Amino acid sequence: MKPLNILIVDDSEIIRDRIAEKLRQFGDAIKILQADNYSLALKLFISSPPEIIILDIQLPDGDGMDLLNIIKTIAPSTHVIILTNYPFAVFKEHCAKCGAEFFFDKSNDFEKLQYAVNQICTSDSIN
Question: Which domain covers residue 65, as residue numbers?
């Protein structure tokens, strides 16, 4: 069985590394790709479509919510987890309407990432 591609999109290398470390529990079942900006994220998404994207809202060269719209337009079955320092209700509602399955606050919900990825990996849509 080929590994699940997960794309981590965040401008902070520290955050990307922390997320990758959390995801290592899944071992060879996943392949982790990383992008530190909107442009690279879009390029990686198109060239190697991931099944799961962990996406920040604020990116140095674009808006994560715009990227979410593009992702869901091109590949609606792609699972998106928003991880942000801007956990405002208006953003959460917008992301949910655009198709994000999870919306987490980096400061308070970081530990929930493993749960979310596990939920997605064990859902019928991934298997």
Answer: 4-122
